[in-house]
Amino acid sequence: MSDNWFVVIPSDPEFRPNKDAISKAKQVFCAIAPLAEEIAVEHDAEPIRFFDCGGNFSRTLCPGCGAEIATDTWHRFMDTDFDATTRGFTLNRHETPCCQTQVTVNDLTYDWPQGFARFGFSAMNPDRDPLNPDEVARFETALGCPIRVIYRHI
Ligand SMILES: [Zn+2]
Question: How many angstroms is it from 24 CA to the middle of ligand 1?
Answer without folding.
Answer: 39
